[in-house]
Amino acid sequence: MAERRSVEVHLRVSPAERAAWKEKAAAADLPLSALLRQAMARTQTWTAPAMAVEHERSRQTRASATTSTSSRDGRTPTPPSWRRSG
Description:
The protein is 53% helix and 0% strand. With 86 residues, it is mostly helical. The protein has a domain at 15-64. The longest helix is centred in the last third of the chain and has 22 residues, at 48-69.
């Protein structure tokens, strides 16, 4: 049997946020509380050290994407499959 939910969580949101959340809940055919519970279950939390590692990984990924897609003259190179042969 599932644990009884007896604790309430209160938060402040704008009327527009609440309306958007209620629309999403209605579209999913869920009560707003169930939609928020599901969203929180999918949310990954980070410790400070893990977040620093993830920021660095993202920075390196962006840096390598920038250097691999630019050429010496600053233009984006044409992928080989788009070049004309001959």
